[in-house]
Amino acid sequence: MRVVNVGLIGAGTVGCGVIKILNQNKEIIESRTGISLNLTKIADSDLNRKRPVKLPKRKVTKDARDLIKDNSIDIVIELVGGTTIAKDFVLESIKNGKHVVTANKALLAHHGKAIFAEAAKKGVEVGFEASVGGGIPIIKATQESYAANNILSIHGIMNGTSNYILSTMTEHGYEFEDVLKEAQEKGYAEADPSFDIDGVDAAHKLSILIMLSFGTFLNFDKIPVEGIRNITSLDIAYADELGYQIKLLAIAKSREDGLEAGVYPTLVKKGTQLADVSGAFNAIYVVGDAVGPTMLYGMGAGMMPTASAVVGDVIQIAKHLALENTHLTTPSPYGNKINSSLIKTSEITTKYYLRFQTADIPGILGKITSSLGKHNISIESVIQKSRHLGGGDVPIVIMTHEAKEKNLLSALKEISKFKAITGKTNFIRIEEL
């Protein structure tokens, strides 16, 4: 039986999951693959913290470079996180001729091009299934199952925290801040949830899928990103009345004039596959020109689902080592066959949900619709609730037909100057899948 030596950098939540799988499923892995995975060394800066698994003392070290420089180790697993020291560990491992497995989406989003170039130069593999969707095998599907397809579009619920918050708001009518606090108490959200609720985490994952699906390394900072902080129970209730649910979607679409990409709250038709994804689950909806629409669904984070994907990558690389073949999974640009220039958000065309807060005076709806029409925005439906005795502010909700975003922004700028407008207008894009 071929023995493959593995080193683990980072014995945190996911790292402990990896240790657990390698220990409890050792016989299953060996019987299925004919390979014995030997966890040779474990590096972590804090060896004394409480963990759900016991670290064998003879295998642990505080210095990751003890592991990286160990010539007996074939595969290095990086689970440190972040984009600084993790980058150093990954590049040093590659330069030492070691294959690398990582779950670090931020690292690949910002430095993937350099990492994959170095891996190709040294003839080693980089496994990163766990970087997108936790236990969902979207990376393998994109690299292998969809390889014969021209990918037309990707729509993904890629952050469990945001989906849990929006789902709970939808089911119970709670406000954002209340649900966020509950999510933090239950462990679904971090003490600082900014990366999750502001869309950054989903954007990291989207950039990786764009790299694989459209063959281009986008500058991460150019991807438009919006979070869910401004979503209210009122918007969710009106969306429901219109037949939609609000989801934080990571979207990429291939257009003749370039690539449309971004992360933002979106109205999705009720009863469709993505609308029905609730709680902390993830789902990624991919359309290929040959395969048509497909969707992968599952737990997008957590100790064991993510560890499962990490060990899956380790097994795949170990198989290649056992067979003495080269099966590099290094993404590379496709050349000029796909126009991969990023389309400005102002140039995209879609339908919109608009909620205006106005003084309860006659004629304001007519003024709003007139301004929208002047900017080439036609209206599909309107909700205007009954006027209250004694006046007061009232919401006016409008759903538009498809319109160019720059036209919408011009109209909203004009409407914001009306004296009857009493608050900031909420607008949310609508995706018809």
Q: Into how many domains do the coordinates divide?
A: 3
User: What's the tally of helices?
Assistant: 14
Largest sheet: 10 strands, mixed
Average pLDDT score: 93
The amount of beta strand, in percent, is 25-35%
Q: Low-confidence parts, pLDDT < 50 over ≥5 residues? A: none
Structural class: alpha/beta
What is the name of the CATH architecture of the largest domain? 2-Layer Sandwich
Measured between the Cα atoms of the first and last residue, the distance is 49 Å
Full CATH superfamily name of the largest domain: Dihydrodipicolinate Reductase, domain 2
User: How many beta-strand runs?
Assistant: 16
How helical, in percent, are the residues? Answer: 25-40%
Structural shape: elongated
One letter per element, helices H and strands E, the order comes to: EHHEEHEHEHEHEHHHHHEEEEHEHEEEHE
CATH class of the largest domain: Alpha Beta
CATH topology of the largest domain: Dihydrodipicolinate Reductase, domain 2
Radius of gyration: 24 Å
